[in-house]
């Protein structure tokens, strides 16, 4: 049983390495998929690839970054960053139901923000550029 557990761990570690290497040269959609795949094995790697896809303008990744920053899940809680990602995501979303859900989240975050956070969010949106 110990040997089997060790084999599983090694396979998982190798899989994480392979997925990380693959994502290095991938497009935003693939980086997002890799991030989602890795999030349960290695949240740091998962978030890194989801953020990379978000930075490249991939709407679903941007929405996920909004969720992470709103909840403080895997990143420091930051409502200004949450709002920025939701705002950018809802502008690019193709799926109307997902767009509506993202807009609801964006409005909830906005309502929870203080004036300083709102100002910071506006600046983050104003100066954001896809990478």
Describe the 3D structure.
With 131 residues, the protein is mainly α. It has helices at residues 2-24, 28-38, 43-55, 59-71, 79-92, 96-112, 115-126. Helix 5 (79-92) crosses helix 7. The longest helix is centred in the first third of the chain and has 23 residues, at 2-24. It is elongated.
Helical residues, percent: over 70%
By DSSP (H or I, 4+ residues per run), the number of helices equals 7
Chain oligomer state: single chain
Q: How many individual β-strands?
A: 0
Main beta-sheet annotation: none
Query: From N to C, what is the helix and strand string?
Result: HHHHHHH
Low-pLDDT residue intervals, each spanning 5 or more residues: none
Approximate strand percentage:
under 5%
What does the radius of gyration come to? 17 Å
- How would you state the average pLDDT, rounded? 93
N-to-C span: 46 Å
Structural class: mainly alpha
Globally, the shape reads elongated
């Amino acid at each position: 049983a110990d040997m089997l557990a060790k084999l599983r761990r090694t396979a998982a570690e190798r899989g994480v390495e392979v997925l990380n290497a693959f994502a290095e040269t991938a497009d935003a959609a693939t980086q997002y998929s890799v991030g989602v795949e890795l999030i349960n094995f290695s949240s740091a790697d998962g978030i890194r690839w989801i953020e990379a896809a978000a930075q490249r303008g991939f709407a679903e990744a941007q929405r996920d970054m909004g969720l992470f920053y709103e909840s403080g899940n895997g990143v420091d809680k930051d409502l200004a960053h949450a709002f920025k990602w939701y705002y950018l995501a809802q502008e690019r979303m193709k799926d109307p139901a997902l767009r509506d859900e993202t807009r609801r989240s964006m409005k909830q975050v906005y309502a929870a923000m203080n004036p300083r956070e709102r100002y910071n969010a506006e600046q983050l949106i104003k100066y954001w550029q896809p990478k």
